[in-house]
C-alpha cells in the first residue's frame, strides 16, 4: 500500500486525499496574528475537517500573481497561532510558505507537511525539512509571483515541468528526505498561460507515471477555470469540483481545494462509479463485487 509519511501521520494513498485551504490573511478590521484572524481561521479549519478534509493547508502569504510579499515576522505571526490552535485536532497540518524562516517556526509548532511553491529552493530549506519528520510538496513555478504571469514561455511545457520536478525530487532525496515524504505539483497558474495549464492538466497521468511520486493538484477557483466557464472567482465551485474529479481520475493523490464538502462527495462518486483507470479502481473492477465495495467513510 502506497503511503505518505507526514509528520505525526501515515496517510494511506488508496483514495485521493482532500487538502482544505485555510487562508490567514488580515481582513480590513484586523491584522494577522491578532485574536480575530486566528480565531476566524481556526473556525474555518474546523468546518473543513467536519466536511471531510484529510489535510489542512495553512497559508499566511497570498501568492496571487502581482501580490506584494509579506515580511517574515508577519507571516509567522499569522500562521503559527493557527497551527497551535489546530494541533489537538488529529488532522495533518500543512504550511503554505516559501520562506525557510517560516518553515522553521511552523516545524517548531508541529506542522506535518511543508507546502512550498518554490520547491525548497530557499537557502537551507532542503536541510530544514530533511531534519524534520515532515512531508513536503515540491511545486513548479516559472518566475516570481509578482511577475510570473506577464509572459510565461516554454518550448515544451510538459517536458520542462516534468524535468524540473524530477530534479527537485532528486535534490530532496539527496538531502535525505525519504521518497515516502515527497509530493510533486505542476503548479497550475504559476507562470503559465491558459494553453500551458491545459497541456499540463491533460498530461497529469503521464507525469504521474514518469515521476513515480504522488502528485498534488491545485486548480480550485483558478483563472483557468474562469477562462473555461466565463465566471468570476466566486462562481467557480462546480468547475473546481469537475477539475478535482478529473485530476483524481488521472491519478493525482492529493487535491487542494477551497470547497471541501463538494469535492469529498464528488470523489466518492468517482470511486464508486468511475471507469477503472487508477490502481484502486482497477482492483475493485477486477473483483466484480456486487453491492457496496467501500465503506461510507472509507
Ligand atoms: C490568490 C490567488 C491567493 C491564488 C492564492 C492563490 C497552490 C499552492 C497556491 C498550488 C500548491 C491558490 C493560490 N496554489 N500550493 N498554493 N499548489 N502546492 O489558488 O496550486 O490557492 S496559492
Automatic annotation (TrEMBL):
Pathway assigned in UniProt: Cofactor biosynthesis; tetrahydrofolate biosynthesis; 7,8-dihydrofolate from 2-amino-4-hydroxy-6-hydroxymethyl-7,8-dihydropteridine diphosphate and 4-aminobenzoate: step 1/2
GO cellular component: cytosol
Organism, scientific name: Formivibrio citricus
Family affiliation: Belongs to the DHPS family.
Cofactor: Mg(2+)
Catalytic activity, as annotated: (7,8-dihydropterin-6-yl)methyl diphosphate + 4-aminobenzoate = 7,8-dihydropteroate + diphosphate
EC number in record: 2.5.1.15
Keyword Metal-binding: yes
SUPFAM superfamilies noted in UniProt: Dihydropteroate synthetase-like (SSF51717)
Domain Pterin-binding: 16-268
Function: Catalyzes the condensation of para-aminobenzoate (pABA) with 6-hydroxymethyl-7,8-dihydropterin diphosphate (DHPt-PP) to form 7,8-dihydropteroate (H2Pte), the immediate precursor of folate derivatives.
Keywords, sorted A to Z: Folate biosynthesis, Magnesium, Metal-binding, Transferase
Protein name per UniProt: Dihydropteroate synthase
Taxonomic lineage from the root: Bacteria, Pseudomonadati, Pseudomonadota, Betaproteobacteria, Neisseriales
Molecular function per GO: dihydropteroate synthase activity; metal ion binding
Entries under NCBIfam families matching the protein: DHPS (TIGR01496)
GO annotation, biological process: folic acid biosynthetic process; tetrahydrofolate biosynthetic process
EC class (word): transferase
